[in-house]
Structure formats: C-alpha cells, structure tokens
Amino acid sequence: MELYQLTVHEMCDLIRSKKVSVVELTQSLLDRINAVDAKIESYITVLGDEALNRAKKVQERIDKGEAVSPLAGIPMALKDNICTKNVKTTCASKMLNNFIPPYDATVSKKLYNEDTVLLGKLNMDEFAMGSSTENSYFKITRNPWNVERVPGGSSGGSAASVAAGMTGFALGSDTGGSIRQPASFCGIVGMKPTYGAVSRFGLVAFASSMDQIGPLTKDVTDCAIVLNAITGYDPMDSTSANIKYPDYSKALINDVKGIRIGIPKEYIAEETNPEVKKAVLDAAETLRKLGAQLEEFSLPLTEYAIPAYYLISSAEASSNLARYDGIKYGYRAEKYTDLLDLYIQTRSEGFGVEVKRRILLGTYALSSGYYDAYYKKALQVRTLIKNAFNEAFAKYDVLLGPTAPTTAYKIGEKKDNPLEMYLEDIYTVSVNIAGLPGLTIPCGFDISNLPIGLQLIGKPFDESTLLRVGYTFEQNTEYHKNRARI
Amino acid sequence: MRVNKKTLEHVANLARLNFTDKEKEKLMLDMENIISYIDKLNELDTSEIIPTDHVIPIKNIFRDDEVLDSYPKDKMLMNAPSKEDGCFKVPKVVE
Predict the structure, then answer these.
(1) Average pLDDT, integer, range A222-249
(2) Which residues form the Amidase domain (chain A) (predicted)?
C-alpha cells in the first residue's frame, strides 16, 4: 500500500507511531496530485508550499503533545463552495472566479482546529447545480475508475480526489444527493448529515432549506471521525440544531442484530439498473444474515420527490443567487450602459447555462400568479413526503436502497437533456426534502467494473445507527478495500 | 405552450438575465419540458395540507444586541470589482 491509498485512521496510526511525519504524508499526497490530477481534474486550487508549511507546524504541535485529534496531520480538501480564508473559493463559477473569502466557513475553522492540513479546493458543478460535475466553469472532472465516465456531482471533485488517493478525505455539500451520488459513482463512503447537524455558515448558499455539508471518505470509520469534527451547534447559522451530538466513533459496532431495515419497493423498481438492484439486494441479504430484520414496504410519493425538489431548490436558488450583482464581490461585466444594465450583463455573462436555467425556473415558480400553483404546491408535497418517512420510521430504524439508479454514465451522455439528468437524483432528493441523514457505502461493481453504492437512510439526528449498519457491512465485506487503478 | 417567448422574457427580466434569440428557443423548450414534468404534482390533492418550508420547526432566532468586532473595511473591499476612496464604485444612479 502506498501512503496516499491509506484511510484517515491508518494515516493517523502512522503519524502517532512516528512512522511517518506529517510533512512526508502531505508531500506524498501532493506528489500524487501532480502525478494523476492532470487525468482526473479534481482540484481547482492546489496549495503546495502552504500545505507543506502547515504540515511542518502541525508536526511540531504533535511533537509537543498539543495536537491530539485523530485528524491531526491529516491532509484534506474541500469542495470549492466552502469558504476558506485567504484561499480562493470559486463555486466553479466565472462569477466567483477570483473570490477570496475574508473569513472561514465554520467547518473550515473546525477542521483547522483539529490540526488538519488543507491541500486545496475541489471542482464541482457550478454553484452545486448538477449531477455530473460537467457544469463547472473550469473543467470536467473524470471518474478515477474509468476516465471516460463522470464522477457524479455536484461534489464530483470531492469524490474523485478521495477515490484516486489525492486527499485523506474531503468535504462536499449535498442539496439533492450531491455527496451521496458522486461517492456512489466513485466507490467511496459519503454522508449527508441531518439538516441542522453541520453549520452552513460559510457554505455558499444554493437551496438553504436543504443544503448540508458532509464527509466523503474511504471507509465508515473515517466518516465517523470527520463527522465528530464537523457536527455541532453554531450560533452563526440560524438553522443549526442546538442539541447534544454523540461521539460517532462509539457507533462503530460490528453488530446489526435486531435492527429493523425497510426496503422501499419504489427504490428497487423497473427503472433501477438490474446490476445495481442485484448488488443492493445482495447487500440486504448480507445484513439479514448478520441479524438485521429486513422487510420490503411501499414508500409512497417517491415519484413526486423530483418535481417537488426542483421547484423548491430552484426557487430558493433564484433568491439566494440574487446577491451576485457585480457590486461588492465577484465578476462585473466590462460593458454596460447604466446600473440596471450592469446587473443584467454581469449576471448573464457570469453564470453558466444550468445556473441560469434554474434561476429562471425558480423565478417563474415564485412569480406573481404562479406562486400557489408551483412553489406552495411543492411545499405541501414536502409535508406529504415528510409524513411518509415518519410513518416508515415508526416501523423501521433504517431504510435501505440504491444511491443512484445507475452506475457512472459517460461524459456528455446526459448533458444536453436537463430533465434526464434531474431524474438521476430519484433516490436521493427525498432525503433532503425531509431533512434526514443519508449514508452511501460501496456494495459492489457492475460488469464494467464501475462501483455501485448502497444508500442507508436514517431518522433525524440518528447518524449513529447508519454508521453502525454501514460499519457492520464493511467489516463483513471487502468492497471498501478496492481502490481505483489510476 | 405555457412558456412562450413573452413569459420567458418577463421571467428573465425579473431575474436580471438576458438571452439571445437562439438561447431563448432552447430555454423555452427546456422550461416547457421541466414544467410539464412538474405538473405531475397536480395528481396529488393538497388542499388541506400545511406547507413545510423548513423541516426543523425553528422560528425567530434571537440574540443579545451586543457590540462585536466587525470585519475590517479593506477586507470587505478586497473582492470589489471596482472601488474608490474606501467605497464600492457603481455607475451613477441619481442625476
């Protein structure tokens, strides 16, 4: 095993036993980025000397016994919509091409406080709008398992960099599946925490009622370690939940006896690729043999989740993105006649096609005469979807299904048909609509050797049970040990 | 067609965006497809359903009105596309 292939907890063991210095580890990952990122294109910004200087300082703190976190000295990278003080944060948009935040997102600050080493910022769909990372202003990220395929999105750079060993772990953001689907496509672990569990302060807003930051890691143990660092109440985020957060590492128990798992019939329907379906049902069988109680049931309204999601998210996006006006920060058009024209030219030149499409859809849904028919309707359907989950969780501890209906598709395959691309999110968006936690873990490969992801959905703030089921599955299977050959 | 050229131009204006005629043609088609799909929601009777705009029932988050540190002015201006004398510079608004 090369250093860059190790999990976070394996890296931590080597650092603590002084077998590897933080500088050596950081250098190994920077070398790896130099060697393969020209093929994968996962980073927008790489911090070379800054990362090595930071590594030196962290090593000194470790030597003095001041840095004791399991993340101390671990190289990491962040999706480029998470603000990093003095480090460019672009959202993969021309609009924020040169934006340097004067402050840190709460998650950035929390991770620095754990003595992590920031390697750089990761590619994404512009403003997190997309499912393939083809909507970046800068570059198209490729899937490390097959560079002709998309890595998923919108956190495609995060997933690809972890899968290709270019970072110890990454953070992404998930509004409708943007952590789970790319993690699934790239054969790694991804968690969207419960809405409110991780502060959104400093996350560039897309759809505020559904956005949530979460970890992308090589295994479930790493997921728990990162989750411990980033969850918690934050007065800077008015939607942050002020509750007591558990120690997630205590959830890493190799036992699922008695855990009640429901499989929504609608999640293993005809549209699901047969190979994906088989891998997911095999995984369910594995869990059953280990003592979990499994049952298929009907989760109604699944087919209504996508239309409700696109209305709510686009409406919120149209409002959130009104701030990009070319005045205080970001791009400003060169030619304009007056203030109104400055706004129009700036926004028309600064945003990409998909972002403009969603702003239009959202503005339409919120505009006079259509508000009740579209936006309000979607919020009512949201209530119904939430109720359907509540009923399911009266019977089950965890819901199980595929993360995505297919494995990674070819670059360009769905780019020109937005609706077809939206349908990719069918199994993930409901989780955001209802604010639930969702975990994806690798559970197999298709005939083309592309990874398949298993999605576990939990009750609000019950990430621990998801981690426990995921950990048990991992301890009894080998899928998470496969690394993309790149 | 619910999304004709007039509707599209109206919405684009509200969103402070403009498009070429070619872009408009494609967008009208995209919007029409997406909205037709969204109309699926009308299959559900929601007349008695209370809308959920937020999953967590949090309302009115208050804090004490204290004087805290502000960000320094130069930091707030460092990303401005145009600035002068410690201010954001914009085109003339009032004659």
Answers:
(1) 97
(2) 24-467
HSE value, Cβ hemisphere, 13 Å, CA-based, for A329: 19
B61 in contact with A at a CB cutoff of 8 Å? yes
The reply to whether B42 touches chain A by the CB within 8 Å rule is: yes
Query: What are A465's strand-pairing partners?
Result: none
B3 pLDDT higher than 90 = no
Q: Is residue A458 part of a domain?
A: no
Average pLDDT over residues B50-78: 89
Other CB atoms within a 10 A radius of the CB of residue A443 amount to 28
Q: How many domains does chain A have?
A: 1
pLDDT of residue B94: 79
A4 neighbors A29 (Cβ within 8 angstroms): yes
Each residue's pLDDT tens digit, A295-315: 999 998 999 999 999 999 999
Q: Is residue A47 part of a domain?
A: yes
Mean pLDDT of A347-359: 97
**Chain B residues within an 8 Å CB radius of A384:** 44, 46, 49
Contacts of B33 in chain A (CB under 8 A): 418-419
Q: For residue A484, give both structure tokens.
A: 């993309």
Burial B56-92 (b: 16+ CB within 10 A, else e): eeeeeeeeeeeeeeeeeeeebbebbbeeeeeeeebee
- B19 and chain A in contact, CB less than 8 A: yes
Answer whether residue B1 shows pLDDT above 90.
Answer: no
Q: What is the mean pLDDT of residues B14-22?
A: 97
Residue A154 is a catalytic residue: yes
Dihedral sign, Cα of residue A81, residue A126, residue A305, residue B58: positive
What percent of chain A shows pLDDT beyond 90?
95
Q: Answer whether residue A84 is part of any domain.
A: yes
Residue A446 CA, distance from chain mean position: 22
Task: State the ipTM, two decimals.
Answer: 0.95
Contact flag B50-A383 (C-beta cutoff 8 Å): yes
CATH number for position A37: 3.90.1300.10
Domain presence at residue A85: yes
pLDDT of A420 reads 81
Catalytic residue among A42, A131, A154, A240: A154
**Helix (H, G, I), strand (E, B), or coil: what is residue A457?**
strand
Nearest residue of A to residue B71, measured between CA atoms = A102
Quick one: A17 exposed, middle or buried, by C-beta within 10 A (0-12, 13-18, 19+)? Answer: exposed
Domain range summary for chain B, segments of one domain joined by +: 5-43
Containing structural domain, residue A192: 3-256
Note the Cα A46 to chain centre separation in Å: 20
Region B15-27: mean pLDDT is 96
Please give the average per-residue pLDDT across A354-375, as a whole number. Answer: 94
Q: Does B53 touch chain A (CB under 8 A)?
A: yes
Closest CA to A216 of A191, A249, A198, A193: A191
Average pLDDT score, chain A: 97
Q: Which residues of A touch B43 (CB under 8 A)?
A: 304
Q: Which residues of B touch A241 (CB under 8 A)?
A: 56
By C-alpha distance, the chain B residue nearest A331 is B81
Q: Is A360 within 8 Å of B49 when comparing Cβ atoms?
A: no
